[in-house]
Amino acid sequence: MNYISTRGAAPVLSFGEAMMTGLARDGGLYVPETVPVMSKAEIAALAGLPYEEIAFRVMRPFLGDTFGDGEFRELIAKAYSGFGHAARAPLVQLGPNHFLLELFHGPTLAFKDFAMQLIGQMMQAALAKSGERITIVGATSGDTGSAAIEAFRGLSNVDVFILFPHGRVSEVQRRQMTTPVEANVHALAVDGDFDDCQARVKDMFNDFAFRDGVRLAGVNSINWARVLAQVVYYFSSAVSLGAPERAVSFTVPTGNFGDIFAGYIARKMGLPIERLVIATNQNDILDRAIRSGAYVTDGVKPSISPSMDIQVSSNFERALFDAYGRDGAAVRALMDELKAGGFAIGEAALEMLRGTFASGRCSEEETVATIRQAFATTGEVLCPHSAVGVKVAGEHLGVAPMITLATAHPAKFPDAVEAAMGVRPALPVRMGDLFQRPERVTRVKNDLAALQAIVRERIGH
Ligand SMILES: Cc1ncc(COP(=O)(O)O)c(C=O)c1O
Ligand SMILES: N[C@@H](CCOP(=O)(O)O)C(=O)O
Fold first, then answer.
1. Are 143 and 165 within 8 A, CB to CB?
2. 84, 93, 254, 272: which could join 105 in a potential S-S bond, CB 3.0 to 4.6 Å?
3. Residue 371 counted as domain residue
4. CA-to-CA distance for 94 and 261, rounded, in angstroms?
C-alpha cells in the first residue's frame, strides 16, 4: 500500500513512513494511493465482533508490511485497554431513528483517544525498531493536545510540544494539558487562535532544516494514521444497526474535517452510508463552502464548542484532492489562494462534494437549546460539540438510521453544560483532583522563530 501527497510533489511512502513523516514535504497531506474495498460478506462478518477485532480487520489492508498481524493485534489491544466502556464506542438511542455514538470513553474523554492511543502504540513500536528519537509538535483547539500528551507522556525517546490558543480552550482541557508532571510534556499557550497554532505547526514542517534537525513528527490529523483509526467506529456502529443490509447515515460535528473524512473513507471502503452530514458551529466555513461553492475564511469566532473553532480546515484538502480528480497541482493552486483568504471551488468538484456531503450549521443559542432538550427528552447529557451534531442531524433524518457522533464528554465543558441545563456534569473519579494539580505552561507569541527556539532549547538541540 503506497501513500501519495495531495499536492503531488512529495515522495511516495509506505504506511509506516507516512505515519512517522506527518506533513508531506510538498506541504500536502498523505492519502492512500487506492482505498481497499471490503466485500458485503466481509462487512457482514464484523457484526457482533469485539471492537478490537473490527479495528484489526478494517485497518489491516492499509498497513502493508509495517506491522505483522500478531504485532498489530497486540498494539490494538493495548491501545483500547484503558477505555472505560467494554464496547469502546457504545450506541445509545435518542429517538425513533436517531442514535448517538459515544466516543468519549477513552482516557481523555474525547474521540481523539481512539486514534491517539493507537498511534501512540504504533509509533512506540516503530521507534523501538529504528532506535530513533522524535519531537512531536501538535496544534490543538483543546482535545487533540490532551489526547497526544496522554499517549506519549513519560516516554524517553519522544518530546511532545502542544500549541493551544491561549484563553480559548475550556479549563478542563487546559488542565489536562498543563498538569502532567512528565518532563517530556511541553504545553505552550499561544497568543492566537487554533488556525494560528495549526499554521505554525505546518510552518515548522515546511522548514526542512528545523524539521530534520529536531526529527519532527506530527500527531494532528495531518497524520494519515489518525484518520485511519477513526474509520473503525463508522464500521462498528453501522454493522450494529444492520449494515451492510441496511444503509445508515452519519452526522459529524466538524472542525478540522478529520473525523468526517474518516467516514468518507469508510464509504469508499464499501460501507453503505446514505448521508454524511457535516455539522458546524458558528465557525461555518465548511457549511458555507458546500452551499455556496466559496471556501472563504472570515476569522475564528470563539464559541461554546471551542474544539470546533476552526476556519482553515486541514483535511478538507484531502476531500478536494479527490474532488479535483486527484490533481495535485490543482490542489496546490487552491492552497496558495487560501493563503490570501479563500477560493472558489470548481463546478465539477463542487458537484462531487455536494453529492458526497450534506451540511448544516448550529448557532450558539441552538447549541444551548439542544443540550437542554436532549436532557429533558432522553436523559442524555451532551457536550456542546455533540449538541451541534444532534441539532444538525435533526434536519437530515431520513429512512436510514442516523448516527450522530458524540465527540466529547460533557464534563470537559462543565460551564457551558451547566448554563444550558442547570446541572454540572462531574468528571470521572480518576480525574477528580484535576483542579488541585499544579499547572505548568509557557505563554508564547504567535511567532515561528519564538516557538522553534523553545523547541530547540527544551530538547537541547
Ligand atoms: C469535541 C470535538 N468535536 C469535534 C471536533 C471536530 O473534529 P474534526 O476536527 O475531526 O472535524 C473536535 C476537534 O477535532 C473535537 O475536539
Ligand atoms: N479539534 C481539534 C483540532 C485539531 O484537530 P486534529 O484532528 O487535526 O488533531 C482539537 O481538539 O485539538
1. no
2. 84
3. yes
4. 24
Range of the domain at 365: 88-108+226-421
Is the CB of residue 60 less than 8 Å from the CB of residue 255? Answer: no
Quick one: cell of 61?
489492508
| Residue 132 maps to a domain | no
| pLDDT score of 342 | 97
- Chunk the chain into consecutive blocks of 10 residues (it has 461) and report each block's average pLDDT, rounded to whole numbers: 98 98 98 98 98 98 98 98 97 97 98 98 98 98 98 98 98 98 98 98 98 98 98 98 98 98 98 98 98 96 97 97 98 97 98 98 98 96 98 97 98 97 94 96 98 98 89
Residue 426 lies in a domain: no
- List, edge to edge, every strand of the sheet that includes 158-165: 216-217, 134-139, 158-165, 185-190, 442-444
Please give the number of the atom of ligand 1 that sits closest to the Cα of 230. 10
pTM recorded for the entire structure: 0.98
Helix ranges restricted to H, 28-142? 40-44, 51-59, 69-80, 112-130
What's the domain count of the chain? 1
Residue 372: CATH number of its domain: 3.40.50.1100
Residue with cell 459515544: 102
Asked, for residue 444, whether it belongs to a domain, the answer is no
- Is there a contact between 437 and 177 (Cβ–Cβ < 8 Å)? no
Q: Does residue 339 carry a catalytic annotation? A: no
- What is the atom index within ligand 2 of the atom nearest the CA of 138? 9
Pull the grid cell for residue 167. 484563553
Query: What ipTM is given for this predicted complex?
Result: 0.99
Which residue in 40, 78, 112, 301 is the catalytic one? Answer: 112
Q: Quick one: cell of 370? A: 439542544
71 Cβ contact partners less than 8 Å away, ≥ 6 residues apart: 125
